[in-house]
Amino acid sequence: MNFLKFIRKELTHYQRKVVVPKTRAKPFDVETTLEEVTRAKKARVKKFHGPDSLLYSAIYPVVFTMKVFGLAPYDFTGDQLTPSNCCLLFTFAFMAIYCHIIYIVYLRFLSLQRNKAILTVVETTKVTVNYLVAMYDLVLTIFTRKAFSRIWNAQQDLDERLSQLGYPRKEVKTKIATWIFLISQIIVWTAVSQTGMYAFNETWLFNTSYMCLYIGTAASVYKFFGMVSFLGQRFHQLNKIAKENLPPRVGYKSSRVSRKTIQELYNDLMLLSEALGSIYSWSLFFWLANLSIHTISNLYFIIDWVILNWSSIGWLLMFNMWCWLVGFAMQFLALHIACDYTTTEANFMPVILIDWDARIVRRFPYDDSFRTLHFLNRRLRFSAGGFFDIRLSLLSSIVGMMSTYLIILLQFPST
């Protein structure tokens, strides 16, 4: 026993050798590795909520611009868009900035000596109307933060549900369109600013301040344009899904998405569109009035100067007026195209559903074929204060109205 204790005591002084089994290096297989990477990409879950969502990532440069101008007082709490008091400081800051800018502009206009009083009246009216519209947009943004957040979150919920049905959205085209839009706007407003500085002998500070009012108004227009376009894209996608799952006229084919699911998705989209139209109803009216006043006045000056002052015309001034017209025309087209596209796609769904019922009733004559007729009476429309609906056909009426007032103004020479 003493001998065993001695052996055990001596063995504790020696470290135990751990035998590591030899492993063979696994050969690198390019095809196997590529297949694993591809499988991992397919298995990766796409986010439809939060700042990392496909849509938000695609339009983030525009959202950042909106935040700077106080038109996006929202932030993400988790994966949900919520009103942000921190971002709201930009809204109040720009309300103060706009008030200061209009004060400076009025002082400048009062110090200028013009040959005709109508020139002062027109310019003062233009900048005053634009200032009031810009202030209304900021006030509306403050009071509709929660409603706008609900619309955005519901739209993200819809994208996730479409993905679960096997129709995920790819926002590559949206990202490309966002950058094209940003670059075009930078070019237009830079041209307006630079030509205006030299044509009217303005300082950089005054010119930038004057332009800030108009860029802020344009930003609010394009904010509405973006939201309406996103809804139109989803109506278009839902229409394609409904067409793909229509019952065949001959034979049998199972549908991946049922008619009930399509109707539920369509109803959700209609509720979002109607809520958005209700928020911006009066804004649409004010935007169109503001753009019409500025377009008429610019055309008035261009035509009057070309006809009466051809020999002494300032071509830099003429180019500046044309740049303004391009900026106003882009906003006009953005409003009308977005509203017309979305309403057309939304109001086409009832036709598809009626066709769906017609195909079913041919096979099952005793089935109820009138269950989707009520959708025909529910038409999406974006109304401008309840006075008229925004569609492409409205452009012809606006052009006719502007032509009438332009002829009246041309009876008063500007110089």
TrEMBL record:
Pfam families: 7tm_7. Keywords: Cell membrane, Membrane, Receptor, Transducer, Transmembrane, Transmembrane helix. It comes from the Eukaryota. GO terms for cellular component: axon; dendrite; neuronal cell body; plasma membrane. The chain crosses the membrane at residues 54-76, 88-106, 176-192, 204-225, 279-303, 315-339, 388-412. One of its GO terms (biological process) is signal transduction. It is found in: Cell membrane. The keyword Transmembrane helix applies. It is a multi-pass membrane protein. PANTHER family: GUSTATORY RECEPTOR 8A-RELATED, INVERTEBRATE GUSTATORY RECEPTOR. Belongs to the insect chemoreceptor superfamily. Gustatory receptor (GR) family. Gustatory receptor which mediates acceptance or avoidance behavior, depending on its substrates. This is Gustatory receptor. It comes from Tetragonisca angustula.
